[in-house]
Amino acid sequence: MNNYSSKTLMDMEHKYGAHNYHPLEVVISKAEGIWVEDPEGNRYIDMLSAYSAVNQGHRHPAIIKALKNQADTLTLTSRAFFNDKWPAFAKKLAEVTEKDMILPMNTGAEAVETAIKAMRKWGYKVKGVEQNKAEIIVFEENFHGRTTTIISFSTDPLAKDNYGPYTPGFIVVPYNDAEAVRKAVNENTVGIMVEPIQGEAGVVVPDQGFLKNLRDIATENNILLSVDEVQTGFARTGKMFAFMYDNIIPDIIIMGKALGGGVFPVSAVAANEDILGVFEPGSHGSTFGGNPLGCAVALASIDVILDENLVQKAEEIGKYFRAKLEEMNSDKIKLIRGKGLLIGVVLNESAGKARQYTTALKEKGLLCKETHDWIIRFAPPLVITKDEIDYAMERIREVLG
Ligand SMILES: *Cc1c(COP(=O)(O)O)cnc(C)c1O
């Protein structure tokens, strides 16, 4: 433990850490549930949940217990050997996703890369697409991670510029535009990859039926539909997975973030055997993917979501929170959107940029982050109560009312 002040720590980070982030000026040194604390002892409600990686709340006792027990038993084997935790995790996640098989990785981007590889390989081996011709349809304003292949089809110059040459094979079309997808399909199309709600773009919710249309297009044309549930998955939006709002069955489900319960990076891809079966031994992998520590944590993280009815809670509390935000009738707010406890507040340009408001909210004890210049995202841990929303609303009203 150190006794550095927030100021010293921020200066130290600025000096020694690469500047690829622009954090809000608060240092977190402790956390429990929805609350975080700085070295000076100031307490804040976490309204971001590490971009939805802490759906279960900080240091959930059941998840920490699983972590500690597993740390005392076995942590890493690599996949050169079987271990006694990965099969149990695979079974559990296969049941939750209603898919045949799971492929474990660590970060969300790795799971996205896995889905891309699976779609391409399926395209060549099963669909019969000519080698190196496979195309995957993706959407404007997408966010799927930071690897060189993934940023190759980003439309955000900040994420993409100066990182070329870019990986080919991706066709970018407007989000929420199924007709554009239909037009982009050709004999080389192997898949569509979509966020059911675009989190990083600013909580952009497509029309009801958009995913259903994508499902139909995929089925009609023998192509795979992959949903990136890294941010929206595991109860965040008031369903176990956000694709469930359109009652569809995707071919590939990409998961991460809350799968690790806020303590350990765990990601995974779920699909049926006709798709994940394309991987033969040696064709894909990860040293840490499926490690016992991560699997124990992920198992506990899923159990917490199920045992504590976080799906229902996110739905109810999310509705309550959104209604309260609407009731403010603020002239600073242009639009409130989202599902469950993934909420985007879009500001009027006349109100000025979001950063000044996230800074003011921090001063009042609420931590949230702006996305782009005009949007504030509210995504507290799903264990938040109505009383705590009321407490937060008092402060939000003072800043945005
Ligand atoms: C965060 C995120 C990712 C990337 O996850 P990392 O763990 O940061 O690599 C991918 N897709 C979506 C939708 C995300 O929100």
Structure description:
The protein folds into 2 domains: 6-56 and 309-400, Aspartate Aminotransferase, domain 1; 61-307, Aspartate Aminotransferase, domain 2 (3-Layer(aba) Sandwich). The chain is built from 14 helices and 15 strands. It has helices at 6-16, 49-52, 61-71, 86-97, 108-127, 148-151, 157-160, 178-184, 210-220, 273-276, 292-307, 310-327, 354-363, 386-400, and strands at residues 30-32, 35-37, 43-46, 101-105, 135-139, 170-173, 189-194, 224-228, 252-255, 267-271, 333-339, 342-347, 366-367, 369-371, 375-378. Strand 11 (333-339) and strand 12 (342-347) form a beta hairpin. The chain starts with 5 loop residues before the first helix and ends with a helix. Bound molecules: pyridoxal-5'-phosphate. Pyridoxal-5'-phosphate binds at residues 51, 107-109, 112, 143-145, 195, 199-200, 228, 230-231, 256-257. Residues 51, 107-109, 112, 143-145, 195, 199-200, 228, 230-231, 256-257 line the site of pyridoxal-5'-phosphate.
